[in-house]
Amino acid sequence: MAELRARYSPPWADMTIIGIAGGSGSGKSSVALEIINSLNLPWVVILVMDSFYKTLTPKQNAIAHDNEYDFDSPDAIDFDLLVDTLQSLKKGRKVEIPIYSFEKHQREERTTSLYSPHVVILEGILAFTDSRVADMLDIFVEADMDVCLGRRSKKNSANALVQRNSELTIAEDIIIPRGIENKTAIDMVVKHIQRNLREKSEAHYLELQRLGKQVEEQPLSANVIIMDQTPQLVGINTILQNPHTEQVDFVFYFDRLACLMIERALDTIPFVPATVATPDQHIYHGLRPAGTISAVAILRGGSCLETGLKRTIPDCITGRVLIQTNYSTGEPELHYLKLPQDINDHAAVILLDPQMSSGGAALMAVRVLIDHGVDEGRIVFVTFAAGKRGLQRLTAVYPDVKAVVGRIEDEGESRWIEKRYFGC
């Protein structure tokens, strides 16, 4: 299978990082917030360097409480952690952002999770100080009251780093005098980000198209399990396909079919030997799941399968991902994510989506699970109807993922199951 593995990169991989620097009171935060508000997108976040202050020693803590500690010194920032965090985000991984308490001058035990931003705005006085951070920045912005608007081409950024007074300084891409009032300079940054996001969106869509052509002639993987078309299953499918079936009947029979598919999915997960004593005190040697089984529904359609899931595995832990197709670009987009705690330790994760056509949402959902520590071989994708090309894409990129499919649908069939199930 190794030679058939194709490559898939989600749109948040190799994200754009915008560095905003400037002295205290120069309007860095206001500029960053104005950029966020102008973009009005859920995939742009602000990463404040204050979160990466080092935990102080007792001696340093006493100095800080006397207002004598220099928090504007590069030595006050944990640049190693900041660099690791940015590199992980660049690779599409989930990271934990520390929370710094200025009251205690210590990092708190809790952290803030960050995953899948397309653009990160790094804001801080020392944003350009460390060359490792500067090398990852795609555009440099300085909020400065005294310098006129300036611009330099990104291709010369590598030559713009100069050493002066033992501190690293950078020739900025954009210098913003008058801070938030300078709408022209802020608009320049916003348009740069919008152009960058548009280019990434087009590249992601083309990659999905290329992947479809690459696997077009390949047979379905052995890990694709198509439900046996027994008379019962064909009868249920006949009822579901009939446009005159009442909604209450549609829901009843779809839930029944969902139970059968979940039961088939359970046949693919690992079991270990188990021994129990019967009521008559006879010893029975059987099997039990090798660990916790959880499920993640791809909204909104994945919710259709949850009734069957709960009937089959009543105590199953569930999560949610909302992936929607952008109708203007055809690109799947991750809008919401809520996964079960410690999902990386679960023996199996069942991914639910009643219908799969191109496979874009399934590819993205599997990538999300892998980025959160779930081994590819522990993922079971369950769907009522799937196009052959979508299944080929999924198994070409993730050959160890198992898929349980109710039936193979015609290519390009529109999504209709959730509309019939929910009545809207």
From TrEMBL:
EC nos: 2.7.1.48
GO molecular function per UniProt: ATP binding; uridine kinase activity
Domain Phosphoribosyltransferase: 229-411
Pathway: Pyrimidine metabolism; UMP biosynthesis via salvage pathway; UMP from uridine: step 1/1
Coiled coil: none
Keywords carried by this UniProt record: ATP-binding, Kinase, Nucleotide-binding, Transferase
Span of domain Phosphoribulokinase/uridine kinase: 17-153
Domain of life, per lineage: Eukaryota
Statement: the UniProt record of this protein carries the keyword RNA-binding: no
Gene Ontology biological process terms in this record: UMP salvage
Family (UniProt): Belongs to the uridine kinase family.
Identification of the protein by name: uridine/cytidine kinase
Source species of the chain: Ajellomyces capsulatus
